[in-house]
């Protein structure tokens, strides 16, 4: 009981000069919780003394832990360009600077400057995307999962949607097409088998309750061998012949032709727009190389109906997303691909990667063992499954540490590499030119530490 009485008074303790520059309310909250835990430890006889300096230190540690940013910049040295765990596609610094004025000022997000009345937020980007893709209209929501849900809920609530069994995908976070359909109110009509679906399977399943023929891109897997699927162009024909809506959830549809023979491995938005589809949707932050967004394009009459769905207000994007997406789409329209970091990395040659890897090697040769490694990596983000692209990495060996230990040391310094063939690698497919100096300094810290 004597020890309990020695716990400082909260008001006196928080007046300590060590807390001078801290938020008083937050400090009081932390101290009350700290002292409550302290009482429990005393009563359970887990401690037999109190050190006020230690209490001050613990309070400040907790304060800094709460107030420091949880999201932190890291160096992606995994080689995976569209790394879902590391924020997917990068935004070019110059592009972001151009958008900064919009984000920090009042703007005409929903105001028509010409007519002096309320405007539509999607009008700012529709003209660029329509020109780029040749579509009638466009709608932007917060991601492609939202796009799928909105389309199904708008056009197929309590009606059937025909989908091949080979396309009933599950992507990251247990996002499953059958579950999304169920939540949206649509009724799933499975056709074909896992490996084979024919045109007749669609035709034989159409009835008076059918609303839509849907195709889903196999974003993170592929079916090889004895297999067959029906192309979207044929699905469009069948939908038109039966007065139905055709819809392709493209996942990560691209606009710029892909290198390394990947062009036929991933759906091209431009290719499918030639067939005048009802609706397509794809992600903004995958192969498009922009911000997180779900981009829905297609015929104006269907986009207009989507805009009238009350759910759109819950799924809409803000001014920053629209401004960044507009800049990126403008860059694609003008073929300024250097303003799209995802595309820059994708098209970087192994000779360029080798040059950067050699720069780092020359800087750290005297600090640790390192060697150039010809390797391969993945684009990531569920795109081009099972398709690897060439890359160059630097193998790092520090002291007698095992690869797992080296990986941990680099990770603690916010450099995320990978282990391959029992070696810790820094893959230059995703290391930016201005990050080489940072890596050199971090390696010095790791070795000296």
UniProtKB/TrEMBL annotation:
Coiled coil: none
Record's catalysed reaction(s): L-seryl-tRNA(Sec) + selenophosphate + H(+) = L-selenocysteinyl-tRNA(Sec) + phosphate
InterPro entries noted in UniProt: PyrdxlP-dep_Trfase, PyrdxlP-dep_Trfase_major, SelA-like, SelA_trans
Pathway(s) annotated for this protein in UniProt: Aminoacyl-tRNA biosynthesis; selenocysteinyl-tRNA(Sec) biosynthesis; selenocysteinyl-tRNA(Sec) from L-seryl-tRNA(Sec) (bacterial route): step 1/1
GO biological process annotation, one example: conversion of seryl-tRNAsec to selenocys-tRNAsec
Enzyme class: transferase
Keyword tags: Cytoplasm, Protein biosynthesis, Pyridoxal phosphate, Selenium, Transferase
Residue list for modification N6-(pyridoxal phosphate)lysine: 286
Residues spanning the membrane: none
Protein's cellular compartments: Cytoplasm
EC number: 2.9.1.1
GO molecular function: L-seryl-tRNA(Sec) selenium transferase activity
Cofactor: pyridoxal 5'-phosphate
Keyword Acyltransferase assigned: no
A Gene Ontology cellular-component term: cytoplasm
Any matching Pfam family: SelA
Function recorded in the entry: Converts seryl-tRNA(Sec) to selenocysteinyl-tRNA(Sec) required for selenoprotein biosynthesis.
Family that this chain belongs to: Belongs to the SelA family.
Record protein name field: L-seryl-tRNA(Sec) selenium transferase
Organism: Halarcobacter ebronensis
Encoding gene (name): selA
């Amino acid at each position: 009981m004597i020890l309990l009485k020695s716990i400082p008074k909260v008001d006196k303790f928080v007046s300590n000069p060590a807390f001078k520059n801290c938020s008083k309310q937050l400090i009081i909250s932390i101290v009350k919780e700290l002292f409550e835990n302290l009482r429990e430890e005393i009563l359970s006889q887990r401690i037999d003394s109190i050190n006020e300096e230690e209490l001050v230190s613990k309070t400040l540690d907790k304060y800094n832990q709460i107030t420091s940013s949880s999201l932190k910049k890291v160096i992606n040295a995994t080689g995976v360009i569209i790394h879902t765990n590391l924020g997917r596609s990068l935004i070019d610094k110059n592009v972001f600077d151009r958008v900064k004025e919009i984000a920090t000022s009042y703007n005409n997000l929903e105001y028509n400057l010409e007519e002096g009345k309320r405007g539509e937020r999607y009008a700012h980007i529709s003209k660029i995307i329509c020109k780029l893709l040749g579509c009638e209209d466009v709608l932007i929501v917060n991601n492609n999962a939202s796009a799928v849900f909105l389309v199904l809920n708008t056009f197929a609530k309590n009606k059937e949607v025909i989908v091949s069994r080979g396309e009933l995908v599950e992507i990251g976070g247990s996002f499953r097409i059958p579950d999304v359909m169920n939540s949206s109110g649509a009724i799933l009509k499975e056709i074909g088998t896992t490996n084979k679906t024919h045109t007749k399977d669609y035709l034989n399943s159409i009835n008076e309750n059918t609303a839509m023929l849907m195709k889903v891109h196999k974003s993170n897997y592929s079916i090889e061998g004895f297999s067959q699927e029906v192309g979207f162009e044929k699905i469009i024909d069948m939908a038109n012949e039966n007065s139905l809506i055709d819809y392709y959830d493209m996942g990560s549809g691209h606009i710029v032709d892909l290198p390394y023979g990947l062009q036929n491995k991933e759906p091209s938005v431009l290719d499918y727009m030639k067939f005048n589809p009802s609706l397509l949707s794809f992600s903004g932050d995958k192969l498009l190389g922009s911000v997180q967004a779900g981009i829905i394009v297609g015929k104006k009459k269907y986009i207009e109906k989507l805009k009238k769905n009350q759910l759109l207000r819950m799924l809409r994007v803000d001014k920053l997303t629209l401004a960044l997406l507009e800049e990126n789409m403008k860059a694609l329209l003008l073929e300024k691909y250097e303003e799209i970091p995802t595309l820059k990395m994708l098209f970087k040659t192994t000779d360029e990667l080798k040059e950067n890897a050699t720069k780092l090697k020359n800087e750290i040769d005297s600090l640790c063992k390192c060697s150039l490694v010809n390797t391969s990596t993945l684009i990531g983000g569920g795109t081009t499954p099972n398709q690897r692209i060439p890359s160059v990495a630097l193998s790092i060996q520090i002291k007698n540490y095992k690869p797992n230990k080296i990986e941990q040391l680099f990770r603690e310094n916010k450099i995320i590499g990978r282990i391959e063939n029992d070696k810790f690698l820094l893959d230059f497919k995703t290391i930016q030119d201005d990050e080489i100096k940072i890596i050199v300094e971090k390696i010095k810290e790791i070795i000296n530490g």
